[in-house]
Amino acid sequence: xxxxxxxxxxxxxxxxxxxxxxxxxxxxxxxxxxxxxxxxxxxxxxxxxxxxxxxxxxxxxxxxxxxxxxxxxxxxxxxxxxxxxxxxxxxxxxxxxxxxxxxxxxxxxxxxxxxxxxxxxxxxxxxxxxxxxxxxxxxxxxxxxxxxxxxxxxxxxxxxxxxxxxxxxxxxxxxxxxxxxxxxxxxxxxxxxxxxxxxxxxxxxxxxxxxxxxxxxxxxxxxxxxxxxxxxxxxxxxxxxxxxxxxxxxxxxxxxxxxxxxxxxxxxxxxxxxxxxxxxxxxxxxxxxxxxxxxxxxxxxxxxxxxxxxxxxxxxxxxxxxxxxxxxxxxxxxxxxxxxxxxxxxxxxxxxx
Length: 353
Known about the structure:
Elements: H1 9-52, H2 55-68, H3 73-85, H4 89-99, H5 107-119, H6 123-136, H7 141-153, H8 157-170, H9 175-187, H10 191-204, H11 209-225, H12 230-235, H13 242-251, H14 264-280, H15 283-286, H16 290-300, H17 304-316, H18 318-327, H19 329-341
Helix pairs in contact: 1-2, 2-3, 3-4, 3-5, 4-5, 5-6, 5-7, 6-7, 7-8, 8-9, 9-10, 9-11, 10-11, 11-17, 14-17, 17-18
């Protein structure tokens, strides 16, 4: 006789209910997993369409993804941005307003809504938006930059530069504040800030469409610095700060190297002498500055000439720069490899303006 185990009718019903519940629960998990997978796949497809510039198909696919995950903040941000790109500013603003009220809002949500407001010249709402965003994200380089650009469109340049400077101080590795500040100081003939911020920008954003313009600005800044005895005048100006004063005192030692004019070659010599004197006099201990650390490293590793040619040679004479590359292939290649493999970042606290 076998030791069979029997169940009562009630036990059998309980087991049946349990089994049905298990099947239903497993099916629910399968459906949820399928939906999650589908939403992610749809989102990835929508992103591909966005990268291809096919905004209509991107919107269609992203809309279907949002039906499955209507509160997904990344999808909503992309839908707002897509609407902005399609010039459907009303929809971009509608989505953006909802995003900035969320507890998990990020600075990018404020940026997208701000761009939409700017596009319809809704300056008052945009002004309030940036103030609200910066209250929530007081170290946001992107929001300081956007707010500064808004103020610049209103011709309030003194307020605009305050925002860009604050962005440089609090988020020192965000490039756009340097770009706008360098251009501002170029117009104000503040050559020191122009060349310092311009060169930092080039190291942060080396190969964008803006970098060519910045190289020209930087070359002109150095040319102006060496005219009309500006170096001595700026050194003795009562408004010159300690960091700038140390810079002028040091670079004046190489004044004779500019006697035949400012070029990529003379600037390589001037700036090499500057770096040697700056570190020789231990100014780096009083004013730690990563831009000068980068220059010292390039000088030590034999890449300083290529670095200066890349900045000033391309700005002064692109054809001559190509000839220099042909004649100095090893140097140019070594510098390019270094530049493309190293991320340039400015540490917090190296702000002396």
